[in-house]
Design brief:
2 domains; 8 strands; two-stranded antiparallel ribbon; alpha/beta; single chain
Length: about 325
């Protein structure tokens, strides 16, 4: 049995960072993220739910939402399942928080406070090949930051591959510890960060009260079930895609070659056939994933976002 909770489980993440007794840990993490830019001395937790503006718009719910004494807003989230448009979704949420600062009356002069989104991704998004992607509003001609009102920071954990001895700074200490926490028996870096003694205490499963432990174990079960569902669907979809690609490539190559009666026709046919096979394989993968997610009771809208399939196709699975 693990000694520490898994911080990528929803309840585990909130136990570590979302309580008054763990506020100092969140402040420390944010200060390491924004090192040499500004220093956060205090935070207040805010309601994580942002109601819809009207009956046909969306309600936004965050893992953590807080504000520092200077008025800066922070959204901190963990995302485990790959989504095609997660970067776009996160931007939508930050824009909602900007618009939510609107005040009625002629006296308001658009005195907006910055909104920061920090997103821990437990998957590779396909948009980068590095751990940290830091997006700001900048002047395209010279790269200079034009506004500090919106900033997105994505931390793609699969790209963080440092060993303990290779960690050099505060952010490294955090990323290594969070990524490996569930496998550790004692937390490292307590000599470099005295605050990690507090982290070790809060993150130990034996220190959870009965209610916390029950909630955590339920969330852990869902996390593992979903992870197994994704792994199975992706593995089988990839296998089917390769098989379909090979069959289609072989078939199309022969037919096109006979039709043209030229060696070039055979080559082009194989090329187009493989392309079509890969396309069919991707569709098969999406349908496989959608079927598994539907069986798990995942919302149709979320499945559409994840797979790119339409509602009718998903309903027919």
């Amino acid at each position: 049995m693990a000694t520490f909770i898994n911080p990528f489980v929803d309840r585990g993440f909130k136990i570590i960072f979302g309580r008054d007794e763990s506020k100092a840990l969140l402040i420390d993490l944010l200060n390491d993220l924004f090192e040499n830019e500004h220093v956060i001395t205090d935070l207040s937790y805010l309601n994580v739910e942002m109601p819809a503006d009207c009956t046909d718009s969306r309600t936004a719910i965050f893992d953590l939402k807080c504000k520092d004494k200077d008025g800066n807003f922070f959204i901190v989230e963990v995302q485990n399942a790959a989504q095609s448009y997660f970067y776009e979704r996160s931007l939508y949420y930050l824009c909602r928080m900007i618009c939510d600062q609107d005040k009625p009356g002629d006296e308001w002069k658009f005195s907006l406070c910055p909104v920061y989104g920090i997103f821990f991704l437990n998957f590779k998004s396909g948009k980068t090949d590095k751990v940290r992607t830091d997006i700001v509003l900048a002047d395209r001609s010279n790269g200079r930051q034009a506004s500090n009102l919106i900033r997105q920071i994505f931390l793609e954990m699969p790209f963080f591959d440092k060993e303990e001895a290779e960690c050099e700074n505060g952010l490294d200490y955090w990323l290594y510890t969070l990524k490996n926490m569930e496998k550790l028996e004692t937390l490292p870096f307590k000599g470099q960060k005295a605050l990690f003694r507090r982290l070790e205490e809060l993150a130990k499963i034996v220190n959870l009260n009965k209610k916390e432990r029950m909630e955590y174990e339920e969330c852990l079960k869902i996390y593992r079930d979903n992870q197994n569902t994704w792994d199975y669907a992706i593995e089988n979809g990839f296998k089917e895609g390769k098989e379909e690609g090979f069959k289609a490539g072989k078939k199309e190559g022969k037919e096109e070659g006979i039709k043209e009666g030229k060696e070039e026709g055979i080559k082009e046919g194989i090329k187009e056939g493989i392309k079509e096979g890969i396309k069919e394989g991707r569709i098969a993968t999406s349908r496989e994933i959608a079927g598994k997610l539907k069986a798990q009771g995942v919302d149709i809208a979320a499945i559409m976002t994840c797979t790119g399939l339409d509602a009718d196709t998903i309903a027919s699975l």
